[in-house]
Structures are given as structure tokens and as C-alpha cells.
């Protein structure tokens, strides 16, 4: 099987919707989560193998600045970009899941929300999974006498899993796991510029999936969970490509 | 504090609705759960101190026979009554709870019923407690992959307890426990005929309460549960009065 880096990039891109602004956020989240400024030329260089044109980059950077995702500054004749406070905050929360090598801690409890107010509260809770109108799975619940909590028996039945992970996310994990495993050797041998682009694409596709469902423990979904398999493949690949900022 | 047996009977009677037919079922359930026949004179003798007149007894026995709770036969000039097959079956199920010296086993699970069919099934399940439209507590659930089960954290919050035990049942246990404790010494010193009547009255009042809620473990309700206190008082008293049939 011959696989070169260009083909790897094409395959990863074909896995799903690539938005330029989202790629930029991935780059900054990967290299500048501490809020440091990155020259626009560096961002352009990473995204160029993925086919992002300078015009598209400029438009997206403008949009991100307008929406307060990034901030910019001029240094001599170059522009530099950094995540805004809001951008850092959102990216940090996402990073927690994107770079996790281990599955989520199994401190989830099932909670029965009796009143409309409670149901609204738990619906709004970041990371909670709603299984039925009044039954939620939540991580790390602080003890509270008014709540009816229970330790659910893992794995969850199929209908409950279906409330947590949509079918296209499930399939997305299956496909991404296969692709990431297939390109592993190619990546190890690719030149640094291509490695950087592949790293960003893998992070991007992985992030698109993990942020679409709450981070329930692997045991809750059960044996055939492609999310767990995909996590292992992605972390394995990321370990092969040093983060550009840290090089 | 002077308490005689007559006063004890009056106090127990005042605790709540006394139906003659229900007293008869209590007598037969206590003395003839195996389906043996009891002369009507014996039933009359037990209920006489409670103030049940022969006419009222006759009418109630007739009604119980018509509704297939009891069967009768003539032996010489006396009538004898026994529980019917239906009467035995219902009384056996109740006896399980009425004479239990120990709290219910803690093998209860919480179950989330996802579909209307499942909800109907668990609503119809004897002994199940419905906490919300789709959340049930059930004892002894056979394992089944389609069910979302969980081990609830005891004690349940107040709102869930309120779905299981109605306020007047809660108060009923409190009152019965006090009365049964108060009459303990009187009962030990009473003559056998009065002891028999008191035994039947205590069983009757106790049964009225226990059959009004599912038999959840004491730990589910929590520390202040008067049902557990009342159970201990009732069993203590019953142990003082030998069952007439076994004497």
C-alpha cells in the first residue's frame, strides 16, 4: 500500500466539512493556548498544504477578530494573531478533551430531575447528557439532598447510547480511526511541513467529533465504542508529530 | 398511667376506619392461612370485644362469600368459614409483609422506562414505586439489556419519598407505633380473649398502612422513617400474644 502525505491530507479532508476559521482556531489552540501571538505567515504555512488560500485565510481571520475569538497586532510589516480571552477559555475547555489520552473518569451519576426548574438547570449544565425528559447523566455531581442520584449500570442500553451519541458521530469515529491508523507510517516519514498540516487536520476532525457529545466514560457506551478506539489512534499519531510551538 | 384492655381496644379502634369484613379477613389470615375452616362462633368471639355485633358479622361474612374471599360449610348446627383460593393467595402475599420482622431486602434498583409500553409494564408491576413518569423503583429486577438500571443513592430525597409514602400513612405509622408501645404492658397482663382482640386490631391497623405503599428498604426512606419504628413495635407486641390457632 503506497500512501504519501498529500494523499493522507486528501483523505483526512474528505472525512468532513473543513471550515477555515475552525482550522485557524485549531492551529492557535494547538500552538498558542497560552495566548501568545503567532505571525500570520506561520498560520498560512500550516494551512497551505490543506489548500487554504491567502484570501480565504484573511477573510476568516477578520471574521474571528470581529467575533472576538482572536486578537491581532502589527509587528513591523507582519500581522500577528493570538486567541482572545474568550478564545482561550473555550479552547482550554475543548483541549481538556481533545488531548486526553485516557478516557473520562467514571464519576458520572444518573440524576432524576423532578421539577421543570431542575430539568432546565441540568439541560444547561455543560457536559450533561439528557436521557429522557427528567433523567440526566452528569459528571462530578456535588452532593445535594434534593437530588435523586443513582449509579447507573454500565453499559447503557442501546436507546440511551443513541441519546448521547448520534449515528453520524459514531460512524465518524469509525472512519477517522481507520484513516489515522492507515496514515501512521506515512506521517512518520513525511517532511515537517506536511506533518504539521496533518497534525492540524487530525486534531480538527477529532475535535469535531468529541465536541458533539458529552464526555461519558467509555464503559458507559460499552465494548464496541469507536470513540475509545479512535482516541487511542489519534493520541498515538499526535505523539509522532511534535507540536510545532514546542519544537 | 392506667391502661386497661378495654381502653387499649378503644384507642386502637380510634386510629382509623374499621371495616368488619376486613377484620374477618385479618382473623382468617392470622389463624387459617392454610385454608382450614374456623367456626363462625370463634370469629364472633374474637371480634366481640371490638364491638362487632352478630348481625354485622353475618352480613359481612355473606358479602365475603359472594365476592369469593371466603368459602363456608355447615357442620351440624354450626357454620364454618375458610379463606377461598383467591383469599389465600391475596392473604399470603400480604402476610409476607405484615409478619416480616426484618426490613425489605435492599435489592431494589432504579429503572428508566423509555417507552410508553415499558412505563405501563412497570406501573402494573406489583410492588413497584413510580417516582416520575419514566422512573421507577423495583425490587428484584431480572437482568435485561434493554433496561437502563441504576443503584439509587439512599436515602431518597424528600420529593421521591413523598411519591412513595403519602403523608397520612407516615402519620399513621407514627401514631400506631406510639399506641402499640403504650399498650404493651396492658396486653401482657390482659386475659386471653382480650389479647386475641387486641392482636387482631393491631394486625388490622398495621396491614392498612403497609399495604398502602411499596415495600422499599428502610434505608431508602432514611433515618426518621416511622414505618421501621412501627414495624419493630408491632412485631414486639405480636410476639407477646400467641396466635390463637397455634395455641
TrEMBL record, chains A, B:
<dbReference type="Pfam" id="PF08223">
    <property type="entry name" value="PaaX_C"/>
</dbReference>
<dbReference type="InterPro" id="IPR012906">
    <property type="entry name" value="PaaX-like_N"/>
</dbReference>
<dbReference type="InterPro" id="IPR036390">
    <property type="entry name" value="WH_DNA-bd_sf"/>
</dbReference>
<feature type="domain" description="Transcriptional repressor PaaX-like N-terminal">
    <location>
        <begin position="22"/>
        <end position="87"/>
    </location>
</feature>
<dbReference type="InterPro" id="IPR011965">
    <property type="entry name" value="PaaX_trns_reg"/>
</dbReference>
<dbReference type="Pfam" id="PF07848">
    <property type="entry name" value="PaaX"/>
</dbReference>
<protein>
    <submittedName>
        <fullName>Phenylacetic acid degradation operon negative regulatory protein</fullName>
    </submittedName>
</protein>
<feature type="domain" description="Transcriptional repressor PaaX-like C-terminal">
    <location>
        <begin position="171"/>
        <end position="236"/>
    </location>
</feature>
<dbReference type="InterPro" id="IPR013225">
    <property type="entry name" value="PaaX_C"/>
</dbReference>
<dbReference type="InterPro" id="IPR036388">
    <property type="entry name" value="WH-like_DNA-bd_sf"/>
</dbReference>
<dbReference type="GO" id="GO:0006351">
    <property type="term" value="P:DNA-templated transcription"/>
</dbReference>
Amino acid at each position: 500500500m503506497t500512501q504519501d502525505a498529500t494523499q493522507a491530507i486528501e483523505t483526512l479532508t474528505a472525512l468532513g466539512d473543513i471550515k477555515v476559521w475552525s482550522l485557524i482556531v485549531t492551529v492557535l489552540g494547538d500552538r498558542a493556548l497560552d495566548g501568545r501571538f503567532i505571525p500570520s505567515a506561520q498560520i498560512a504555512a500550516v494551512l497551505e498544504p490543506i489548500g487554504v488560500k491567502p484570501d480565504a485565510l484573511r477573510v476568516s481571520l477578520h471574521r474571528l477578530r470581529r467575533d472576538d475569538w482572536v486578537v491581532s497586532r502589527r509587528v513591523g510589516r507582519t500581522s500577528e494573531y493570538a486567541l482572545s480571552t474568550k478564545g482561550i477559555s473555550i479552547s482550554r475547555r475543548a483541549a481538556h478533551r481533545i488531548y486526553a489520552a485516557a478516557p473520562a473518569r467514571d464519576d458520572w451519576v444518573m440524576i432524576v430531575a423532578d421539577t421543570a426548574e431542575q430539568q432546565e438547570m441540568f439541560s444547561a449544565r455543560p457536559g450533561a447528557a439528557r436521557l429522557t425528559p427528567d433523567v440526566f447523566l452528569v459528571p462530578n455531581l456535588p452532593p445535594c439532598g434534593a437530588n435523586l442520584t443513582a449509579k447507573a449500570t454500565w453499559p447503557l442500553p442501546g436507546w440511551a447510547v443513541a441519546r448521547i451519541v448520534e449515528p453520524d458521530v459514531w460512524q465518524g469515529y469509525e472512519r477517522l480511526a481507520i484513516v489515522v491508523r492507515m496514515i501512521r507510517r506515512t506521517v512518520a516519514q513525511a517532511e515537517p511541513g506536511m506533518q504539521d498540516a496533518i497534525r492540524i487536520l487530525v486534531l480538527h476532525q477529532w475535535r469535531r467529533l468529541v465536541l458533539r457529545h458529552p464526555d461519558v466514560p467509555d464503559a458507559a457506551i460499552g465494548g464496541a465504542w469507536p470513540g475509545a478506539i479512535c482516541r487511542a489512534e489519534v493520541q498515538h499519531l499526535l505523539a509522532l508529530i511534535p507540536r510545532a510551538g514546542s519544537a
